[in-house]
Structure formats: structure tokens, C-alpha cells
Amino acid sequence: MPTTIHRVRAGDTSRWVVRRDDGWAALDGTLADLLALPLHEARAVVEAARGTGSAMPGEEALPPLDQQEVWAAGVTYLRSRDGRKEESGHAALYDHVYRSDRPEIFFKSTPERVVGDGEAVGIRADSGWDVPEAEVGLVLNAAGKVFGYTLANDMSSRSIEGENPLYLPQAKIYDRSCAVGPAIVPSWVAGPGPFPVGLRVLRAGREAYAGTTSTSAMARGFQDLADWLFRALSFPAGAVLLTGTGVVPDAEFTVRPGDTIQITSPALGTLTNPVVAVGRTSLKGHA
Question: Which CATH number fits domain 69-278: 3.90.850.10, 3.40.190.290, 3.30.310.50, 1.10.3470.10?
Fold first, then answer.
């Protein structure tokens, strides 16, 4: 089992721990503390973590971030470009961003809105066409370097974004729209990739959709995306950057409440989330 970094609940608070072949070890401090350090110093802290035994030293797993904002890159795969063109009448817009030097980067979530492995992700109640987006997330330190990797689900309302590209924040940013986990795999353990990524949607226990991709199909590199994010923004506690999806279901498919979404990569684990509806279908009763 490769070295992985986890955040777990411990009573009324949380703690960070490392899992290795020989068991679990406690980390001193937080992920924000680690990401404030140069990469070699953060690695030394992780490798010096003290053992706590064979059982997970916490009550439950939590999303593997604390103070980090989550950002996302779009149209980094050809399939993503084609999917965005499929849902929208603005084909030239997505062709341009796919080929441009400057990528599409947008804000996705505050840390407190992120859900972890086993928690429910959401689809908007006022949207009729919704899909998961299976992605590799970069855990970036304060200098913009890749500290580690995790899996992520950038839930998306295709009906809302397809109506007008300016509605992208509403299509992407809402309660339970972002899942991250199950853990962080340090960059010195996982290597630079590429990483295969699989997506399954289960409905009533049966497979309703399945697809695979690899980060080798990305039109942009991990560090290139990170450099663009950090070009005019600072992140003293680090940040998580989702790198886009290469798995886009056909137009006939939509996720429904009650489904279960599984995102898997051999090097990064499996992220599993049930689906619930979020919000209202109209503004009726809203003051």
C-alpha cells in the first residue's frame, strides 16, 4: 500500500494522519502547515510521522483538505471540449479555450462545502441534466508546486451551463457540488503520472454508466495549470486544483438522486458518493 495522507474526525475536531504499509502515523499540525513549507521540508515532516498502530486513529474519514480553496480547470481534454459544444450553441468559444495558451480556470468550492468519500454529492433541483466529472486533483503548496494528488468529482449542471456560458458559476458552484478524496497521495510516492481514471454510476445496484480516460490525454500539463492559477493569486495555505475531465456521458444520460458515483484510479484510490438533490426548483417562498 502506498503512503497516503488522511484527515479524520477525532471527537469534536479533526487530525491528519499518514497510512503506510506498517500502519498509521500521526502528523503534527495541519495540511495548511505542510503546504506552507518547501516541498522537501514537507516530505521530511510526512516521513517523520510517528506510529499510532494498525487501526485508523479517528472516528471517520473527512475530505482531505482544511483551509484550501478548490479551483478547477475546464476543457483540458478533447472529450470535454466536445461535450461542452454538445450542450451549448457556442462551439467556437470552447474550440478557442481548448487551443489557447491561457486555460479556463474557475473557482469551485470553499473547503467547508467540500464533501468526502462516502458523503452525498448534490445535483441542483432546478437542473434537468447533470453529470459527474471525474478528475485528478492537484494538491498545491504555497509556492504552486505539486505536493500530492487526490481524486475529485466536479459535479456539473449541463442544462444550466448549456443555456448560457455565463451561467457557469451556477452550474458548478452550489452546496455538495464538489467531492474530494479519499486521501492525498504525495507526489514523491505517486510520481508525475499519467493516471488512468475510471467513472461508474450505479443505479439501483446496477451499472447505469461507465467510462475511462487517462491524464495522458490532457492537452495541458499539471504544472502548467498550476502556474496559471498562481500567476495572479496567492495561496499561503495551499490550494486544490481540479484538472478537468476526459469522461463525459452522452447527452441522453443524466445523474439522478439515489444514484451512486464511483471514481477510481489505481494509484489514487476510489472516491464513492451517493447522489442527492440540492436546493429548490423555484424561488417561490423566498423572501
Answer: 3.90.850.10
